[in-house]
């Protein structure tokens, strides 16, 4: 059909008019015919069934009844009045009730004429009633284009108030199909349609709005979801492709001495299958000639550090330097110590640079970096400073990437004449489905296997009223030589209140665990960094047995002897945060515990979060639940992506369709990257129509 017709402003559709057009624009973002076509129902009601009045049951969902009104009366009530109609069929009597729009009803409703009414019923005064029913004359009902499954469109209060009901939308949709003849050109190739047995676009559009049957509705949904995800994936893959074409990378051809020797002789444990696979993926990136941009996801404790080290050794083997940047001083120091230990038998020179490095040390580092004496530099943001110049930086690794901004990351790019390869590591589990849509332009590796022999952390939920038992448990664990974290929520908006909570908690703990028998560290956001550091170190060194803290300890601290994590007001934490916190324990050989403390007042979402934590420790499973509870909009980093304004597909539920869409998009680009072959003509055309190419160029530059 004529594509221009679909660009017609919605004002021109019969039945719309200027007022409705304005509302459709502001409330639903519908500007054109095309927008209306793409405005999909969010559910369907099965209207195949008509109920008799004597069949109605309490608490049934929406029902449809045929009958007539025999009289209408107005009943005064405390505020205003309500209008009540007696409605009968051949089995009984019920009431229809209106609290608003009474004048209109009185003037337009016909007495003793068969109607089809539809709505929810209530049981009141010994009789069923239906407030504000949808009504249609039986005669009209039989005439209209009608299908078994009735679509229900998303709506807003304003629309309903202005009388743009579901029925009105439905009518407009009918009008649109009449004016356009429903001939929508197809946007997928015959090949894909055949392979996936997809119905045509025109048929799908018709059945999504006027489903002829359950089966056709399902096929229409499948087709449209596939199409939506296919074009998103196409967009992301093209971004990725252009990116690779444009940005050349250093070629690391050899896997040499450092890597080889380390792998043969100094590996302290057997790599897990997942670690091996990821190292292979990285190796192949590093040799490809394009700049690597890889996201490495792995749950807390899954062993990302060794992967980072081995990647850096490959850089060294090719006469490049490498750096590893972590968000905090503590983490950097831990990485430094850890890597020094792992590399003690290699001839690598590793240095640490943080905000608290002394000036003389800094000078030494600057010099040795530029003349190439330093092979690996570990540190905090300090690495980004302009003064930090490498002789030949080939690989930059960022740990806990969500703590760094894009701007900071891009600074690393400028540390050599070609941008170094970049590996970003995160323990924030992003569901695979989401990662694929979000980072379709980054390559993603996942370590989905924990090193063997890890003990599951025992997680329980306890109410505040059980606090004494919890204290006893803490005492017993300290007796055994363990250390304990007690974490309080930190919510920016009410920092002072949180601070009070924390201090109250600290005081009661200090009373319960008095000095000198017990030593307690306390760390919170209002402390000076240096003081924080001292308190942390006391705990790390085992001088204190209890660490009372706000969520500042969330990131990466490694104290293997700490085996109990107590989270206060756990109902106030999000799932991913709870999971991160729990990951602080279970790092040593001892059985570890996580105790979630809450009051008795819990929302149903909070209950779900707690139950999830108790029942699983799989970060990805937790992330999926999190996503379902919060919706993707709230997940870290998704706001900017814009790819998640999906019209019909659901990134979580339609995971399989997503995979298949990605597969076909990849296949298409491999065979016909410019989408010029005759069979792919419509895909190329549609892609252009989407206007996404513009975004792509923004992204690249
Ligand atoms: P994360 O992914 O959270 O950064 P780390 O790299 O710190 O995890 O690893 C956590 C712990 O597991 C470390 O003590 C590390 O030495 C150990 N580890 C890593 N990989 C393995 C493995 N394949 N087998 C046994 N232990 C491992
Ligand atoms: Mg780590």
Task: Round the Cα radius of gyration to an integer and report it.
Answer: 32 Å
Secondary-structure class: alpha/beta
Mean pLDDT: 85
Query: Helical segment tally?
Result: 26
Main β-sheet description = 7 strands, mixed
Write down how many β-strands occur, each being a DSSP E stretch of 2 or more residues: 22
Bound molecules: adenosine-5'-diphosphate, magnesium ion
Overall 3D form: globular
Measured between the Cα atoms of the first and last residue, the distance is 37 Å
Your description of this structure?
The chain has 701 residues and is an alpha/beta fold. Helices cover 42% and strands 18% of the residues. The protein contains 26 helices and 22 strands. Strands 6-7-4-3-2-5-8 form a seven-stranded mixed beta sheet. Strands 12-13-11-14-15-10-16 form a seven-stranded parallel beta sheet, sandwiched between helices. β3 and β4 form a beta hairpin. α10 packs parallel to α26 (692-700), α12 packs parallel to α13 and α22 packs antiparallel against α23 (619-630). The longest helix is centred in the N-terminal third of the chain and has 33 residues, at 214-246. It is globular. The two termini are 37 Å apart. The protein binds adenosine-5'-diphosphate and magnesium ion. Residues 269-272, 275, 298, 300-306, 427, 451 line the site of adenosine-5'-diphosphate.
